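hey so u asked for the seq, here:
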Amino acid sequence: MFTATPAAVMGGPSATGQRPGPIRRAGAWLDGHGRKAWITAMVLGFIVFWPLGLGLLAFMLMTGRFSRHAYQGQSFQGDTEMFCRKSNARSAFATHFRSSGNSAFDAYKADTLKRLEDEQHAFETFLQRLREAKDKQEFDRFMDERAAQVVPADEASAAN
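ran it, structure tokens below
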């Protein structure tokens, strides 16, 4: 009785040395043409029969076919740099406090950053005082106009 091997089921070469199946040949052909070929196949899969496109998308994500380095002679490692940041990437805030290895430069950088932070705080304080002064001036003008409107109305009512 003949039992199919997993490689034969998946279209791969069997123990007898036969040619790879059509699925493996198609995958090898797409690999040979790069990421654009895989994306085109996926889009066509969605157009023809959406579960086929969804299956190709899942396969491409699981095997790293979207990665930047997948078609540069490296093996597929599930690298998805195209869609997310590298895990070792730091935020802009964290890079300010990283040591450069040069202690004199690090001291200069720390002093400069401290000076800039102080200047920024002083400028923000100045802007806040300026806004408060402008608001007070507008409020005083409003109150003067209101007082000028109320005084003639009181004089008119007193004259009656």
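The longest helix spans residues 103-159. Residues 4-9, 74-91 have pLDDT under 50 and may be disordered.
lmk if thats what u needed
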